[in-house]
Amino acid sequence: MTEPSLSQRRLGVLGGMGPLASAHFMTRLTLLTPADCDQQHINTVLWSDPRIPDRTKAGAGRGSPAPELLLQGVRGLIAAGCDCLVMPCNTAHGWYSQIVAAAGVPVLHIADAAADQLRLAAPPGHTVGVMGTAGTLEMRLYQDRLTKAGWHVIVPDEAEMQRLVSPAIALVKANRVAEAYPLLAEMIIMLAGRGAAAVVLGCTEIPLGVQAGPYHDLPVPLVDTIDALALAAIAWARAA
Q1: Which residues of 172-189 are buried (b: 16+ CB within 10 A; e: fewer)?
Q2: Is there a single domain that holds both residue 65 and residue 100?
Q3: Is 119 within the bounds of a domain?
Q4: pLDDT tens per residue across span 81-127
Q5: What does the pLDDT look like over 33-80, one tens digit per residue?
Q6: CATH number of 143's domain
Q7: Residues 6 or more apart whose Cβ sits within 8 Å of residue 217
Q8: 122 and 172 co-located in one domain
Q9: Sheet arrangement for strand 152-154
Q10: Do 18 and 57 belong together in one domain?
Q11: Are 187 and 220 in contact (CB under 8 A)?
Q12: What does pTM read for this prediction?
C-alpha cells in the first residue's frame, strides 16, 4: 500500500550550525522518509545561516550565540509558511525557550527525539553515555532530561573532552571527517568500559565523524541525534 503524501505540512529547518550537519540532516530526512516518489516527501524549507557565532563558547558563558540571528532564522521560516521547526544543532537548544516563544509553532527538541530512539537501544534503568560539545554538556541538555526519564547518565571528563571529543568535532567542522573517527571511537569504547549500555551522539557533527570509520565494530549501540530528529520530524508530518 502506498504511503500517504507527507507534503501537506511544511517543516522548517533552522540550520547552518554547522552547514555540513544541516546538509546531512536534509539527506537523512529524505532517506528515512517512506516515499515512492517526489510528491510523498516532506515539504521542507532549510534556513542555513553559518554566521551564528560559536554555540559552545556561548553555552559556557564565553560569548554570544547572537540570538538575533537565530530569531531572524525563525522569523524567515515562519514567513515561508512553516508549520513546525527543527534545529539540527544540539548546542543551539540552549536557547530553545526563546526560539519556541518566537516561533508560535511546534519546535521539536532534539534531546526528546534522541530519548525516543534511546528507549529502543537501552530502556530507562540502564547507564548510558552522552557525547557532545562542551557547551551541550555544561548546559546539561541531555543529562537532566535523560536522568528525569530514568537513565543513569555518564559523560566524558574535562581531559577527555579536550583530548578527544572537542578536537574531533573541530575536525568534522573542517571537513576532515575521517580524522575524527579514531578520537570518537576511543571515547565511545571508554564510555562502554564504564558501563554505558548505549551512547548518545549529542552533537550533530559527531555522527559524521563516527560514520567515517568502522562504527559497526564499536561495542555498544549508538543513538545518532541527526537521525533521531529526522524521525521525529517524519512522525510529526505523518500525524497530519
Answers
A1: bbeeebeebbebbbebbe
A2: yes
A3: yes
A4: 999 999 999 988 989 999 999 999 999 999 999 999 999 999 999 99
A5: 999 999 999 999 999 999 877 655 554 454 555 578 899 999 999 999
A6: 3.40.50.1860
A7: none
A8: yes
A9: 152-154, 127-132, 199-202, 222-224
A10: yes
A11: no
A12: 0.90
